[in-house]
Amino acid sequence: MQLPRFEYVRAASLDEGLAALAKHGADAKIMSGGSDLLVNMKMRLDTPRVLISLGGIAELQDIEELPDGVLRIGAGCRLTDVIAHPGVSARFPALRDAVAAVGSRHVRNIGTLGGNLCLETRCWYTNQSEDWRKARDGCFKTDREACHVIKTASRCHAINSSDTAPALIALDASVVLAGPAGRRTVKVLDFYRDDGVQHTILAPDELLVAILVPDDGRRAVFAKLAQRVGLDYAAGSFAASLRGPADAPEAVRLVLNAVGAAPKALTESERLLMASGLTDEAIEAAALGARQSLGEVTNLFTPSGFKRRLVKALIRDALVTLRDQTA
Ligand SMILES: Cc1cc2nc3c(=O)[nH]c(=O)nc-3n(C[C@H](O)[C@H](O)[C@H](O)COP(=O)(O)OP(=O)(O)OC[C@H]3O[C@@H](n4cnc5c(N)ncnc54)[C@H](O)[C@@H]3O)c2cc1C
């Protein structure tokens, strides 16, 4: 498959990148590693007239430990470099595990953390070649107000498959966004919208600059199930964090991804664990509760019945691991 024609702009600074974005508007697309974007362009799912590369912007490539203990990771840092950073491995092993779960080594050598957080949602009906798609009508993702996954849907149900998003949400991380009006910082959880087409709150003239991971004493775990390790996107992924003793937690955060258009915080199950601690019974109830509070589960990529069973098993096993680590 050939790439469509496009104009290439390599921004040397953040200001240059923002100016190019303001100039070209909806005709332009930001490119970091290009490992997702270029595939989508070959499939004609994205046909930007201008590609704005952020690869030359030094500010986006740094990993820094700030005086208040926050780890600041530039959005343009390659996944391989995030894994290799001693501060990430030593302080945030769950984040390292999530980054290491993204694709293969080749993908991680090209892909960036910012690109992974902004990863386009995926759907079995659209992430196909243009000829394949022509065999049926369009949908919200292409050219029609319709969803092939849930026929009665009023929005797109494509799936968010970012592996790092649940881990970063569990760690209470934030993202720094830059636009013409300046910068804003938002929690990673609030960065996402439950809509497969407009799946983040990024304005068309904004870009992601950095990820801020606070160190507030949480311990965390990340778990993912994919059909082929190193090749496939998650059938389900889960991250959990805990502050304080496992039998009387001060804070619990549970996040599920790859089951809907946005990562999902499992607030009911969190409340349950806060009230009872991570006992065997509470873990079982939290896993079962999560399964029930999933809401609409689609048949995308795996049957919905399998997904519900998978969710329960992922959560139960990860919570036992988290409790054992704490002990
Ligand atoms: C074979 C294969 C396997 C894969 N497996 C996985 C997997 O298991 N898990 C997983 O999570 N991903 C997977 N991916 C997807 C992808 O490679 C990774 O998510 C990667 O981290 C994307 O980063 P990138 O820098 O290449 O993003 P790009 O392709 O450059 O961009 C992705 C999207 O984010 C936007 N974007 C990028 N940077 C910014 C920014 N700074 N500000 C605003 N918008 C931005 C782009 O416009 C584009 O829409 C896989 C890809 C391939 C080809």
Bound molecules: flavin-adenine dinucleotide
Total domain count: 2
Beta-strand proportion? 15-25%
Q: Strand order within the widest sheet?
A: 4-5-8-6-7
Q: From the alpha-carbon coordinates, what is the Rg to the nearest angstrom?
A: 20 Å
**Unreliable sequence segments:** none
**Count of helical segments?**
13
The coarse silhouette is globular
- Second rung of CATH, namely the architecture of the largest domain: 2-Layer Sandwich
Largest β sheet strand count, sense and barrel closure = 5 strands, antiparallel
List SSEs in N-to-C order: EHEHEEEHHHHHHHEEHEEEEEHHH
Structure classification: alpha+beta
Give a written overview of the molecule:
The protein has 327 residues and is of the alpha+beta class. It has 2 domains: 56 residues, 2-Layer Sandwich (Uridine Diphospho-n-acetylenolpyruvylglucosamine Reductase, domain 2), CATH 3.30.43.10; 229 residues, 2-Layer Sandwich (Uridine Diphospho-n-acetylenolpyruvylglucosamine Reductase, domain 3), CATH 3.30.465. Helix content is 34%, strand content 19%. The protein has 13 helices and 12 strands. The strands form 3 sheets. A 5-stranded antiparallel beta sheet has the order 4-5-8-6-7. Strand 6 and strand 7 form a beta hairpin. The longest helix has 23 residues. The chain is globular and about 60 Å long. The termini are far apart. 45% of the residues are buried. It binds flavin-adenine dinucleotide. The site of flavin-adenine dinucleotide (FAD) has 32 residues, from strand 2, helix 2, helix 6, helix 7 and strand 8. Flavin-adenine dinucleotide binds next to strand 2, helix 2, helix 6, helix 7 and strand 8.
